[in-house]
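Homework help thread (please don't just give me the answer)

Our assignment gives two proteins as sequence + structure token strings and asks us to describe the second one. The first is just a warm-up. Here they are:
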Amino acid sequence: MSPRRRIAFLCFNSRFFVRHFLPVVAAARLLDLEIFALLPSAGSEPIELPPDVKVIRIGEGRTLHPVFSLPSRLFSIYLALRRCKPDIAQAFALHPCVVLTVLSALGFRSRNVLTVTGLGLIDIDQRWTARAMRTFVYRLLRFADKSEATSFVFENHSDSFRLGFPKDRPQRKLILMGAGVDELTFQKLPLPPVPPLKLAIVSRMIWSKGIDLAVEAVVRLRRRGVPVELDIYGLPDLKNQRYFPIALLEEWGRKPSGIRWHGFVGDVAAVWRDHHAGLFPSRGGEGLPRALLEAASCGRAIVAADVPGCADFVRSGREGLLVKPDSSEDLERTIETLVREPHLLEPMGNAARERVLQNSTEQIITAQYRQLFTELQSGP
């Protein structure tokens, strides 16, 4: 009897892995692969994974300066990979993709899957440190793309071109619309009455998400007497170089402007029960926000910036409305459109849920990963 094929998942954020990528684990289990999860060391919050997933701890998680931590991290992950000897190794997010690419260049051999969940801050930040990191990372991933042993998974159609991949030849890449949403947990919900128009943001509290733009827009609308409210859910990401401090978030919530910051939320589906639309005014760097898909699955119209990821899902006028990136003025005008024309909310919300059901359920994403892993197993 031949030994079972092995797969190793590499991620530097345990909560992110469990919240987003259980459909990947499900696909590996359906193929009876022996599964290893290389996750940050003890000190991370408890994680819930199927009992047959073997967790190997790999040191610290995400860092503020990932390039500087690369040498020490390489050795820890090399030892973990030698221990489990995977046939397939899959990295999730940009930093783990870089680590796996470097290890492959140094001699580690497996079929690699690099899952790019958005390009993050380095794609939009114009400070010299971000520009230098962007050059290094994008060149490295273009180098990885030359290897027939490497496949890419993207959450939108723009990131491979942002990385500089050639457009004139086929790539070993898979485009998935998100990481998979449970449409039974995030069921279609009836809309609350209007007015006021109730908007919600569910996100990490970081600059790239554009939350400050939403606050500016809603404050101006309220000053003009427009009946709109904004609830903000999420915590600062202290490992992101441009996070919003709690003092600022609390200050937003204290203003008599119809804005409330609630901090961490466990039951995200309950958020959409009380709101008419999801707000995603991102400055860029997105893959495809999971919170956006969850709002859409609950039948909520989406107001989002016209940036990769968000614009891959929202077709303006159908699933919601798109606004100019980094423009609180355009966001203000767009929100006012929904206040004046609330009859748009239900058909847009219905279209948003239908788009999730066609492209982004857990079952769809699991099936796509199962096909990918099957193809990789049959390859050299």
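The one we have to describe:
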Amino acid sequence: MTETRSVQSTVEVPTDPATAFTVFTEEVDCWWVQGPINFHDSTRALGKRIEPGVGGRVLEVYDAGTGDGLELGRITVWEPGARLAWASSVDDVAIEVRFEPTSGGTTVRVEATIPEEGVDRGSTSWVRMTPVWLADWMARRDHVPHRPLVPDRLAVAVHYEKPAAAARFLRDVFGLEPCGNVPDEEPDGPAWIEFRVGNASVMAFGLEDGVEPGPSSTHTPWVFVDDLDAHHGRVVDAGARIVQDIWHHGARAYAAADAEGNRWTFVQATPLMRQT
């Protein structure tokens, strides 16, 4: 039997609780980073939205005109400057966000509770990502336009025998900025550790993710294309070897080998990418 469990995180931001609450709710589309697996369906997602008041929706927006999309949750508590909570519509997780005044500003405390026998299909990502992404946005928001950061169409995946140790090296020695927490220990399962270089992504994966060791397989370009199915069809018709057929996990993508056997990953571009 699975018992009720919870995970939480905190971050201190240099502003008062009322402003922190406003930034969290009204500017979520700016601080929630767009990336291959940062949405339930990145092929359609334009951003996120939190509708005000009890009964409001937490949305992954797919339609720019209506603002509708995938409902991620329903607001259960709306106390501006103090507390925000919602019940997930995509799994069994309940999220609570508290805004607590400190001498230096506000501590934003995010807690996710998964009930007994409950399922988490991604809602606990609010706990993991808020300390990193909200703090980064608070540091930049007075100096940049208030619109979503659109990733570049070229990214690089680097495969390692020990991805966590390699990622710590990239962070501590090369100075790359992680998009989330870099694990202290090697993960039990597949790794996805992402860094941002300007608007481009560098992703650290393990060799166990289907890539054999070798000089031609450690670095994989990721190219975001307008129409993944058409691109896949053209590559197949040309006789190229498909290394991994189309898969969908947030991003929708496939991998193919080039003329010398090097692996390339092609990914469906997001709606905002296709506008640039």
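TA reply:
I won't write it for you, but here's a hint about the kind of observation we're looking for: The mean pLDDT is 88.
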